[in-house]
Recover the amino acids of this structure.
């Protein structure tokens, strides 16, 4: 299906207007097979080609054809083949056009002063209706890319806050603070510290051959266990006891810890606090058993029936050890003081 597009009308009703760092080259009508909106090129969303938005776009195209007051899709020249283009903005529009059988569409060709400018623009382009706006996960993915590829120093809190304000300007102040916290859960301001959130902690534990998610990797490691975040023990107690009963108390359940947002000066203190919480859980359960059975707590303790076993902490102190060839101070399980954990 070849649609009729008036290039001059588009330029008149929607003249190119791009932020600093984005350089408009030309507006073109191209055969769509010259432009690749591949998912691997969409590096700033977790989910690409969102079905509800694609359906809405198809309805809009069917009723209104091309809307000249709206910005065209944005593309850049493919560095590996200058006769083709890579889609930067308009992935959902491209999918809608594909399903409607469009052979051609209209595009703005741009260049970027830096990868960071491209990242900022990718988010800015979604900060209007009816674009499929970014989610928390999308913003965090872009921040991680900026950090990991050295676009900008995001160990600096001010840099991080300013970038969040830019790429998430359509989020509330409270939401931007949440994004900041979520990013710091996995990317520390201290180069020598490795923070974790739940998923990344389980990933690290699995890498070290430790049990996760109860029986999540039992077939691989031959043990049951959980990686526990700091704080209360309600989830661990519930899920762990269910697992213990299901397995007829045949195996102990290992509990591996990590601490949130540590820094070089408080990591030991936070680990001590985590360990106290685990001990408190044991004391709490013995008190419950005492109330249920009428037995004294000390008599219950003598029976030594307790499913949970402390299994040390994930490595988080990456300070180079000059006595060990500059390797990180912690590479495997450690105790509260950062020494090698011995069960």
């Amino acid at each position: 299906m070849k649609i009729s597009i008036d290039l001059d009308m588009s330029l008149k009703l929607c003249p190119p207007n791009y932020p600093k760092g984005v350089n408009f080259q030309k507006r073109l009508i191209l055969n769509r097979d010259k432009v690749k909106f591949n998912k691997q090129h969409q590096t700033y969303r977790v989910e690409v080609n969102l079905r509800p938005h694609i359906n809405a776009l198809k309805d809009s195209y069917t009723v209104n054809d091309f809307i000249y007051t709206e910005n065209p899709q944005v593309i850049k020249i493919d560095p590996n083949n200058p006769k083709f283009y890579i889609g930067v903005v308009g992935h959902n529009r491209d999918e809608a056009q594909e399903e409607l059988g469009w052979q051609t569409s209209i595009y703005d060709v741009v260049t970027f002063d830096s990868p960071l400018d491209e990242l900022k623009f990718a988010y800015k382009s979604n900060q209007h209706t009816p674009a499929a706006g970014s989610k928390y996960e999308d913003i965090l993915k872009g921040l991680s890319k900026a950090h990991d590829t050295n676009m900008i120093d995001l160990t600096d809190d001010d840099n991080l806050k300013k970038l969040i304000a830019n790429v998430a300007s359509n989020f509330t102040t409270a939401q931007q603070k949440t994004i900041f916290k979520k990013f710091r859960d996995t990317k520390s301001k201290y180069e020598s510290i490795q923070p974790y959130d739940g998923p990344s902690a389980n990933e690290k534990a699995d890498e070290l051959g430790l049990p996760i998610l109860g029986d999540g990797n039992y077939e691989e490691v031959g043990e049951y266990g959980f990686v526990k975040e700091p704080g209360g023990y309600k989830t661990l107690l519930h899920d762990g006891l269910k697992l213990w009963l299901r397995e007829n108390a045949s195996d102990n359940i290992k509990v591996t810890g990590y601490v949130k947002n540590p820094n070089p000066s408080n990591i030991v203190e936070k680990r001590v606090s985590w360990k106290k919480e685990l001990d408190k859980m044991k004391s709490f359960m013995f008190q419950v058993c005492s109330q249920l059975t009428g037995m004294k707590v000390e008599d219950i303790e003598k029976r030594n029936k307790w499913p949970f076993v402390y299994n040390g902490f994930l490595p988080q102190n990456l300070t180079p050890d000059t006595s060990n060839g500059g390797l990180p101070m912690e590479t495997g399980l450690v105790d509260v003081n950062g020494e090698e954990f011995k069960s």
In short: The chain has two domains: 1-115, 198-328. Residues 1-115 form a domain with the Conserved hypothetical protein from pyrococcus furiosus pfu- 392566-001, ParB domain fold (CATH 3.90.1530.10).
